[in-house]
């Protein structure tokens, strides 16, 4: 890492490859653990709720057909994955053929590229032996990469163990399987098996599988089953009390839609919800539910990260690929900092500062980025200072309060004083801290011959740019939660907004 009196020297060895470095200060995991705790059974990549029913049916269906045709292969993991992969590809083809405009379908790019062939070769497009010319590069397919974890969290499948080598459905998974399969006739199931066992299907036969539509759930029993699965507690604490963060979070979303949905563009809904929860929690002196407090912490992390990373990105965007003196870059940033002229900024609240920060990025005014980012850090500290001990106490047993990105700890470390003077000296300290954090985290994530994630290098008083990633927020799964509850008819689209349905209102009324 960079220290004023101890500069690192890069080790030049085997050829390396670049990685994107999406988290240059290694702070984002502090947010990830919060949304992972709040939203079990949904990830950023599991977009459609009906995939859960599809996989419970498909695993059971494969075992049943192997039992009838080749019992010795029932517990053969290679056979199971082969048929799972072919089934996933067949689903992607069916969705592309019947519902080409529907999003959230894994393998859709491959399907779109190949669906016009008269005969679709599932074996060629799915079997792992044909990598890389297959629909999915992960060896276990979409199921293995995205759904094993969530299906396990939802208690729908068993992982392989000493008793069986393949994935099996639980009793809850078997129930969902039987409800899902009500959508298919025996003729359709026979066609599905003939297709994945032979590895071939005629394009015109895809019309038979409209029943597998991921976005349409007309069976009231299937809707009720998803409602039951996602309303259940995720687990119990050590005293035996139910933990129900997922459904409690969903109710927060439903309540916000009920009250504000008509005025919020659904494309901005998640950010609007997080902002509303953050400000209302502050107004309530954090006397809120555990879920509201956790989402407050999440947003505090995100705002703190945006402010801290502002110092990193301002430095990065002020460098070039040619080495130049670090002091010269800092001098230019200081000039831009001092030239920033916005008399009204002293009246800005937290979110006005956040929006101003985005504007400075767009204007490529990097000295101004440092100015506003520093102001935002101090504003966040002042707004939360009286609550920091409470936040640390609450989070201590749940999250890693010592993680470098944990908002309260980060603000204490960078600001630490309500009377902190927001001047260039403070901003420069934040820049040096960001340099150290970036180089420390980048060296720890890099390995010679496998890849480096540095945005810049600093050596012998010189700095040079390696890549220019964009600042990003983490994605807290809430967008996919919204898609899930839209799929099961708790909310619906009303123009550019969301509206709560009668089913959703009934969920809100449940204790």
- The Cα radius of gyration reads 26 Å
Count of alpha/pi helices: 20
How is the largest sheet built, in terms of strand order? 7-9-8
Low-confidence stretches: 1-19
Q: How many E strands?
A: 11
What does this structure look like?
This protein is mainly alpha-helical. The protein is 53% helix and 6% strand. It contains 20 helices and 11 strands. It has helices spanning 29-38, 50-69, 77-98, 108-114, 122-126, 141-153, 171-180, 186-198, 220-231, 245-260, 269-283, 290-317, 326-339, 350-362, 366-384, 388-395, 407-414, 424-445, 478-487, 502-509; strands at 119-121, 157-158, 168-169, 200-202, 235-236, 242-243, 324-325, 456-459, 462-465, 491-494, 497-500. The protein has a 3-stranded antiparallel beta sheet. A two-stranded antiparallel ribbon has the order 1-4. The protein has a two-stranded antiparallel sheet with strand order 2-3. It is globular and about 75 Å long. It starts with 28 loop residues before the first helix and ends with a helix. Mean pLDDT is 93; it is low at 1-19.
What's this model, at a glance?
The protein is mainly α. It has 20 helices and eleven strands.
Summarize the helices and strands and which ones pair or pack.
Layout: H1 29-38, H2 50-69, H3 77-98, H4 108-114, E1 119-121, H5 122-126, H6 141-153, E2 157-158, E3 168-169, H7 171-180, H8 186-198, E4 200-202, H9 220-231, E5 235-236, E6 242-243, H10 245-260, H11 269-283, H12 290-317, E7 324-325, H13 326-339, H14 350-362, H15 366-384, H16 388-395, H17 407-414, H18 424-445, E8 456-459, E9 462-465, H19 478-487, E10 491-494, E11 497-500, H20 502-509
Antiparallel strand pairs: 1-4, 2-3, 5-6, 7-9, 8-9, 10-11
Helix pairs in contact: 1-12, 2-3, 2-7, 3-4, 3-8, 10-20, 11-12, 12-15, 12-17, 12-18, 13-15, 14-15, 15-17, 15-18
């Amino acid at each position: 890492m960079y220290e004023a009196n101890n500069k690192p020297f890069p080790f030049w060895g085997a050829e390396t490859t670049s990685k994107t470095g999406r988290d240059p200060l290694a702070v984002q995991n502090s947010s990830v653990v919060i949304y992972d705790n709040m939203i079990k059974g949904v990830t950023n990549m599991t977009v459609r709720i009906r995939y859960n029913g599809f996989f419970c049916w498909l695993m059971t269906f494969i075992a049943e057909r192997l039992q009838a045709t080749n019992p010795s292969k029932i517990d053969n993991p290679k056979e199971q994955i082969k048929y799972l992969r072919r089934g996933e590809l067949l689903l992607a083809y069916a969705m592309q053929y019947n519902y080409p405009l529907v999003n959230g379908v894994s393998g859709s790019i491959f399907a779109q590229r190949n669906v016009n062939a008269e005969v679709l070769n599932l074996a060629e497009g799915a079997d792992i032996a044909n990598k890389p010319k297959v629909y999915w590069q992960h060896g276990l397919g979409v199921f293995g990469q995205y759904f094993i974890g969530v299906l396990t969290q939802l208690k729908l499948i068993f992982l392989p163990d000493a008793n069986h080598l393949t994935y099996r459905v639980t009793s809850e998974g078997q129930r969902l399987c039987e409800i899902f399969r009500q959508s298919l006739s025996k003729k359709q199931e026979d066609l599905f098996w003939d297709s994945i066992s032979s590895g071939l299907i005629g394009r015109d036969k895809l019309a038979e599988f409209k029943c597998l539509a991921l976005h349409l759930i007309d069976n009231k029993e299937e809707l009720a089953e998803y409602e039951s699965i996602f309303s259940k507690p995720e687990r119990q604490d050590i005293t035996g009390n139910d933990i129900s963060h997922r459904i409690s979070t969903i109710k927060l979303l439903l309540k916000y839609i009920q009250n504000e949905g008509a005025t919020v563009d659904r494309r901005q809904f998640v950010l609007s919800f997080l902002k509303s929860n953050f400000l209302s929690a502050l107004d309530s002196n954090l006397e809120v539910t555990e879920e509201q407090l956790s989402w407050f912490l999440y947003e505090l992390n995100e705002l703190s990260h945006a402010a801290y990373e502002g110092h990193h990105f301002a430095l990065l965007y002020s460098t070039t690929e040619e080495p130049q003196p670090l002091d010269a870059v800092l001098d230019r940033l200081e000039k831009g900092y001092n030239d920033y002229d916005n008399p009204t900024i002293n009246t800005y609240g937290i979110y006005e500062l956040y929006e101003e920060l985005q504007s400075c990025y767009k204007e490529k005014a990097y000295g101004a980025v440092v100015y506003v980012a520093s102001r935002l850090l101090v504003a966040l500290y002042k707004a939360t200072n009286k609550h920091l001990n409470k936040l640390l106490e609450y989070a201590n047993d749940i999250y890693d309060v010592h993680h470098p990105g944990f908002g309260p700890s980060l603000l204490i470390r960078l600001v630490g004083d309500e009377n902190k003077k927001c001047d260039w000296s403070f901003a420069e300290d934040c820049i040096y801290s960001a340099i150290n954090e970036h180089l420390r985290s980048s060296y720890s994530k890099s390995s010679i011959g496998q890849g480096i994630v540095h945005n810049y290098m600093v050596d012998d008083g010189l700095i040079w740019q390696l890549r220019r990633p964009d600042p990003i927020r983490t994605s807290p799964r809430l967008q996919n939660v919204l898609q899930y509850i839209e799929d099961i008819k708790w909310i619906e689209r009303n123009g550019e907004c969301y509206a709560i349905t009668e089913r959703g209102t009934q969920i809100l009324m449940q204790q």
